[in-house]
Amino acid sequence: MTIIYENTSISPEINKRLWEMPKVEIHVHLEGATDAATVWKLAKRNKVTLPAATLEEWQGMYAFRDFDHFLDIYLLATQCMQTVDDFAFMLNRFLAEQARQNVRYCEVFLSASFILDKFPQDEVIAVFAEGIKRGKEKYDIGLCFIPDIARHIPETRYRVLDFILEGRDAGVFIGLGLGGPEAGYPPELFADVYEEARRQGLHVVAHAGEVVGPESIWGALNKLKAERIGHGVRSVDDPKLLEYLAETQIPLEVCPHSNYRLKVTPLDEPHQIRKLVDAGVCCTVNSDDPPMFSTDLTSEYLLLAKQGFSWIELWQLNRNALEASFLSEAEKVKYRAEWDAFYAMEK
């Protein structure tokens, strides 16, 4: 794996703090967070043939090579999910991994456009409801889901919305997202369903400004009225957009390793989050599709530490994620107390 830009070393003390600090993650995909070993088990029990003879070979294929390879592996992983019980298995693995890093609350994307014709909606919602319950009881982790529309299948958009509304009533889904290939599928194509989602009281977010430039972010802001922007790093190319984001404090869900792997950020340059933070933009740190990009949430913070971010800056990014989440104010008060206790102990 090519080495990503680093310009400093970090102390064992900072390393320890970053592993132990309570965290919130608001941009992670359940399917993309499912590791190679889990997909291998799903393939075996569902009799899906993978292009590998052994788990070790499959794990080697799982390592990121290029964007097309990433999409191939992502789609292979989703094909291994054949029953609603598979989602329960994936969720338990996901929660165990988040607990290992002391992630206390997660807002997780689901590729809803691919779920609709494959599984009974009520059964899927029931599995996720049970996962939320198990996350709290077994791991003391809060969990909510944001199903998203696959941009390249826009005809699914209202069916995704209906799915979300059904899950919202069950206390499982909290909002509508937009993912998939950004090029060729601008936010404007989805303005109608976003207007209806807002009318129905859902939170709305959108991936924008990753592969496509600032115009994609402006579209998500002006046409979709997105409350948060997934990635958004291309905003550094537009001074007016930077100024607007700093003024409004609309949060960006930044995923550094993902941006490097997909060549949104050159490997030999600091990540754009440095410019964003310096411009006063509200940034959060997230892992996107962690095993597919050879990362996890803590490693995202460690990378930024190796690029010169101070402990205070890293802590603020972590605090931003809590404040940018869609938790209620009463729920945030409880988490803030935990955050404050940790920070006071580490000062």
Report the sheet-strand fraction. 5-15%
- Unreliable stretches: none
- For the record, the CATH class is Alpha Beta
Using DSSP, what is the number of strands? 8
Shape: globular
The overall pLDDT average reads 95
What do we call the CATH topology?
Answer: TIM Barrel
Radius of gyration: 19 Å
* Widest beta sheet: strand line-up: 1-2-3-4-5-6-7-8
Query: What fraction, in percent, of the residue positions are helical?
Result: 40-55%
In CATH, the architecture is Alpha-Beta Barrel
User: How many domains?
Assistant: 1
Q: CATH H-level name... which superfamily?
A: Metal-dependent hydrolases
The largest sheet, given as strand count, sense and whether it forms a barrel, is: 8 strands, parallel
**Helix-strand topology string:** HEHHHHEHHEHEHEHEHEHHEHHH
Look at the helices and sheets and give the structural class.
alpha/beta
> How many angstroms does the end-to-end distance come to?
36 Å
Count of helix runs: 16
Itemize the secondary structure elements and their pairings:
Layout: H1 12-20, E1 23-29, H2 36-46, H3 55-62, H4 67-79, H5 84-100, E2 103-111, H6 112-115, H7 121-139, E3 142-150, H8 157-169, E4 175-179, H9 191-199, E5 203-208, H10 214-222, E6 228-231, H11 239-248, E7 252-254, H12 256-261, H13 273-278, E8 283-285, H14 297-306, H15 311-324, H16 329-346
Parallel strand pairs: 1-2, 2-3, 3-4, 4-5, 5-6, 6-7, 7-8
Any overview of this molecule?
- It is a single chain.
- The chain is built from 16 helices and eight strands.
- The mean pLDDT is 95.
- Strand 6 (228-231), helix 11 and strand 7 form a beta-alpha-beta unit.
- The radius of gyration is 19 Å and the shape is globular.
- Strands 1-2-3-4-5-6-7-8 form an eight-stranded parallel β-sheet.
- Helix 1 (12-20) packs antiparallel against helix 14 (297-306) and helix 5 runs parallel beside helix 7 (121-139).
- The chain has one domain (19-346): Metal-dependent hydrolases (TIM Barrel), CATH 3.20.20.140.
- By secondary structure, the protein is α/β, with parallel strands linked by helices.
- The two termini are 36 Å apart.
